[in-house]
Structure formats: structure tokens, C-alpha cells
């Protein structure tokens, strides 16, 4: 009876084993490496060839053959379980590394595209202005005008902008190529690690995943670098536009043209003293005494009935607030993507995070494609993520109000802000979270002067949900 039971057990285990041995040679290789690791550990502890000797003794022991065979099959099942666990772990880790690399490279490419577009729109204008001055340059150098200094200062400013815009753009080509190579390497290393795991080469698979992680860090470094370039180019674009660099330069050239034509047509003698510009001959206009500045008026009034200011003031902010986060504790928890929290981190760049804010608010001020996991908490609301700010003396601010009674309370957060270096623009919107409607968030917009062309709007959770 015992022999029949053993034989039946051997047959059942044999069928299971054959079914699971799809990659028998690779599984044997895995078992060999595991056995080598085991024997090395035993021999290190006890000395000699302990494990191998034990196997030999078991082979010649008087135990029934079927009992030994059953033991070996059970051991083989243990090997198979470890083998498939190793493959699953390698695949999961590899897929996560490649997803992060793909996301970081996509973000870096988006940054590069915006830099290129901005550069293309500005550089031709700079070239045209720089070419204009060649017509008058020889005459201008000979004119003893105080305003020549203004002309040269303005021209120097244009050249500085041109060099800064052209510099990152040239380097950017190589940066994108480098990022592309790292992205392809990551993909290749992850696939190689999966294949090595399937072949039972656990140590080599782990080493390959480590190299893939190094490639991922290189792509993340590229993303950070291009984010800094994008920020710099946007600031230069704003400076170039709102300081009226083009118009000031052209006005200077018009005055020089008028003056040089008068000098060289009517007064050819080089010793003749040039007359000053008409604008310089006019007597100074007396300025009125300064009066108390009027209180700033909001184009739109706040919608909150009893607003509490987190930052800023309706009568004019006491100070400029830029890239700053404010923590707010709520009397009830809010939920997004299944995660609850009663602590919000609210910053002036249109970002509301659960639990805590970004690692570095200043370096996370520019909106990117979601999910944005690099330095930003996984559970975050983005009503309008871009480089916003609160300007001193302006009626800007971030306000909130909690209404209702348990279990129907709600919090409304109201933004009234402007964009960095573009204080003529206003952005006015609400974020509403309700106790009775978990996992529901409402964004409501009143004033978005640029139609949101530079902003990111959305909600993200953990594991790339958005």
C-alpha cells in the first residue's frame, strides 16, 4: 500500500513538474546557481564539501527510491517557485524603471520644444534690430551725443539676450541626443535583465537593472537641466517683451537717423558742434507733488463670503510672495484617488498637495505633463500649475473659507494672482473640496488672461494615476 501511494505521488508530482518545466534548461541553470550559492554558504560555515557529501549520502542511503524521488521533486518545486518569483520581481522592477525613464524623457523633450519655439520667435527680431544699426554705425560713433551711451546699453542688452537664447539652444541639441541615448539604453537594459532572469541568471539580471537605474538618473538630471533652461528662457522672453527692448531700440535709431541726416547734409564741417536732440533741448517738466496712492481695485471681486487670507490682501499685498507654500489643517479629511488627508500644502504656483508640499517649490514652479512625480507629492491637485505669484501692493492673494456642518462641510480655496514678470495678467479661480463627496474636486475659473496656454490643469495620484 505504501509503495502504491508513493508511486501515485511520484506520478502526480511528475506530471506537475513536466508541466512547469517549460524552460527546463534555464531552470536547471537557476537551480545550479542556487545550489552553488547554498553549498558555498554551508562550506563557509562548516568547511569542506558538506552539502555535496550530504547529497551523496542521501543517494546511497537505504531509503526507498520513491521516497528519495519525492523529496527531490519537492525540492525541485521549491526551485521553480523561487525561479518564477525572481522573474516576476525583475519584470516589475524593470517595467517601473523604464516607465520612469520614458516619462522623464518625454518631459525633457517637451521642455526642449518650448525652448526651441520661444527661441525661434525671438532670435529673428534680435537679428533684424542688430542688422539695422549697421546702416548708421559709422556716423553714430562720430556723434558726441550723451544718448550714444543709451544706444550702446540697449544694444548690449539685446546681444546678451541673443547669446543666452542661442547658447542653451545649441547645447540643447546635444542634451536631447544624450537623453535619447540614455532612454534607449534603459529600454535595452530592462529587456536584457528580463531575459537574464528567464535564463536563471539572477545576479546578472540584478546588475543589469542597476545599470538601467543609472541611465534613469541621467535622464532625470537632463530633465532638471532643461527645466532650468526653460525657466531662464521664459524670463528672458518676458524681459524682452515687457521692457519694450525692440521699441526703445528702434526709437533710438530713428532719432540717430534724423540727427545724422541733419549733420551730414547741412553741416559737413567736422568741427561743427552738433546740436542736441530735440528731446534734450526741452526744459524739464515740473512734476506734481506725490499723493497718496489709490487703493488697488479688483477687476473681479472675490466670491467667498467670509474669506480668510492665507497670503496677500484685498487692500494690496504687504510683500511680494513667489514660490512659497502654505500649510492648512482642515477640520475634516479630503480624499483623492482613495487617499485621505486633513493637511493641505497650498502654494502660489497653482498647486495643492495632500500631506506635504514639493521638495523644492521654486524648482517645481513650471507646469509639465502629468503625472509629475519628480519631487512632487503623489496626491496633488493642479488647478492652474504655472509660475504664478503675489505682487506687493497689488490686490493679489490666496484665500479660503470653510462652510457647512458635519457631515456636509466644504472648503473653497480662491486664488487671485498674477504671473511672474507679467503683472498685467490676472488669474482668478476656485478649488472646491466637499466632505460629503470624497474623491470629487471642482475647479472653477473666472479670469485666466492667457487662456491657460502655459499652465497644467489636472489631478494626480500614486503609481502614475492622473
TrEMBL record:
Keywords: Membrane, Transmembrane, Transmembrane helix. Residues 270-301 are annotated as: Disordered. The chain crosses the membrane at residues 54-79. Residues 283-297 have a biased composition (Pro residues). This is Uncharacterized protein. It comes from Penicillium chermesinum.
